[in-house]
Design goal:
Oligomer: single chain
Shape: elongated
Distance between the termini: 135 Å
Radius of gyration: 45 Å
Largest sheet: 5 strands, mixed
Strand content: over 45%
Helix content: under 10%
């Protein structure tokens, strides 16, 4: 690099040449930035460009910015200043994870500058990826399975994981993966583990520059174990699913299971026998109810199964219709139980009180009847009975069409319709502003005291109503019992409220 005095002499000589030759330098050619990699390691970057001395260029100015538009004024700490070299290092002034854009211009001896070059860019990567923080090592039937959450690298470019195994806690041990770039997903199977040894595992992520994250050792231990009891569950379709299709795909999950059959057909399974998913495609369906049975085998002859019901109707699309015919809406019943029955159209399954109901179809499976035995109506008063019917889904959908019907029945106490207030007694005097009213009743499903619903004891046939409000003076207490066909009877008493609890006094003031 030329010293300041040398550059001054060079400029004077060049100026003399210009005068002696009788001409001036033309504008120097625009330099071309050499390509940059997608990522640059560390917090420094060396950039270079073409030599344009043939067009009179004697100095160059290269700048860097995180904005591709290079806003003015340019930040001088991200520029080279005027230099004679065709390379420059932005030394330890760049930030990790940021993308920097670079451009350059040239000038000749008489300070005529070229236009700016096109820019190139690169992203700095100074540290390794985020560490693994949730490594899980579990012994399986024939290998140890390692799993962890994917790591991030601030958008710089995660590359792969390195897997280490040791026989001592706290010791990193040696690598057991197949080499760089072999473990790129957040799981790994150690197929060389011994059942007599407990191992300690460590997983470290590496970025595109080979920077390995050393912190976050996060060791976890595991030893091989035998499979536990097998289990499986059909996830799709759901139990009592209604469809019009001739065949259905079945899928589910399993644990500790090595082979599965669905209605006698072998199912496809994910590789890990400890936990995974299975599927069986195109299971045929007959018209009406179809049992879907999934059976699985574990180790030592242990088996498991799961069964659901799928109902096939003649066609998809018709809206389901459901009607409760017994008991009648608004009817009066005795305390205990009542059978619920009715009719339906285009319905494959019916549920009452969270239970599937026995239904009977006609020969075409288009209409039918249903019956639910012993619906509990053990509370006096109104009880709403709801039935939900499931039909075939709309075209292109999986969710059943749903229809509901409901009736309200009234449970009436035994005996003739009657009500009697026993407390307080007629004509009682009190200084309270509210009172509890109780008594007996029969033949009713509700009792109201001054419009307030009372609490009924259906066995003792008594009622009680707390906090009935009172005012000074005479207060009428009216108990009304309602029975079948909304017939009513009532009992009325009067309670007197005085302003003080002191003994009553009286004095004649006139005549004296």
């Amino acid at each position: 690099m030329l010293m300041k005095a040398e550059r001054t002499i060079l400029k004077l000589l060049l100026a003399g040449l210009v005068i002696w030759g009788g001409s001036a330098w033309a504008q120097p050619a625009v330099p071309t930035m050499n390509p940059e990699p997608e990522f640059t390691a560390g917090l420094s970057n060396t950039v270079s460009w073409s030599n344009e001395s043939a067009s009179g260029a004697v100095e160059y100015f290269v700048g860097a910015a995180t904005d591709p538009e290079f806003p003015d004024p340019q930040q001088m700490e991200l520029s080279s200043g005027w230099i004679t070299a065709t390379t420059y290092t932005f030394d330890a002034v760049l930030e990790d994870g940021l993308t920097y854009y670079y451009r350059v211009r040239a000038r000749n001896a008489d300070m005529t500058m070229s236009a700016w070059s096109d820019s190139v860019f690169s992203t700095q990567d100074a540290i390794g990826p985020d560490p693994v923080t949730d490594l899980d090592a579990v012994g399986r039937l024939e290998y140890v399975r390692l799993t962890w959450s994917p790591v991030e690298d601030a958008g710089i470019g995660f590359a792969f994981y390195r897997v280490y195994r040791s026989t001592a806690m706290g010791d990193l041990g040696s690598r057991i993966d197949g080499g760089d770039n072999t473990v790129t997903l957040p799981f790994f199977a150690d197929e060389t583990a011994d059942t007599a040894v407990t191992y300690w595992y460590t997983v470290r992520p590496v970025d595109l520059f080979g920077q390995e994250t050393l912190e976050g050792n996060n060791q976890d231990d595991a030893a091989l174990q035998l499979l536990g009891d097998p289990s499986l569950q059909i996830v799709w379709p759901t139990d009592h699913y209604v469809t019009c299709e001739e065949a259905l795909d079945v899928s589910g999950v399993f644990y500790n299971t090595v082979s599965i059959w669905v209605n006698g057909e072998p199912a496809r399974m994910t590789l890990d026998p400890v936990s995974g998913e299975f599927s069986a495609l195109g299971i045929p369906l007959a018209m009406g109810p179809n049992t879907i049975l999934a059976e699985g085998n574990g180790t030592f002859g242990r088996t498991t199964s799961h069964e659901i019901l799928v109902i096939r109707l003649p066609s998809c699309g018709p809206l389901p219709v459901l009607t409760i015919t017994v008991p009648e809406d608004g009817s009066y019943q005795e305390q205990g139980f009542v059978d619920v029955s009715g009719t339906f159209e285009n319905v494959g399954a019916i549920m009452i009180m969270d239970q599937w109901v026995d239904i009977t179809w006609n020969a075409e499976f288009t209409t039918g009847t249903f019956l639910y035995l012993d619906y509990p109506i053990d509370q006096l008063g109104a009880t709403t009975i709801t039935a939900t019917g499931y039909g075939t889904p709309p075209p292109g959908e999986l969710i059943d069409r749903v229809v509901t019907d409901e009736v309200t029945v009234y449970v009436v106490a035994p005996g003739e319709l009657a009500v009697d207030i026993t407390s307080p007694e007629d004509g009682d005097i009190t200084d309270a502003r509210s009172i509890t009213v109780s008594g007996t009743f029969s033949g009713a499903f509700k009792v109201e005291v001054n419009g307030i619903l009372a609490v009924l004891d259906p066995l003792a046939l008594t009622f009680e109503c707390e906090s009935v409000p009172l005012e000074l003076g005479a207060n009428e207490i009216r108990a009304v019992a309602t029975g079948a066909d909304m017939a009513t009877v009532e009992d009325v008493i009067t309670v007197y409220v005085v302003g003080s609890s002191d003994p009553p006094t009286v004095e004649i003031t006139f005549p004296p």
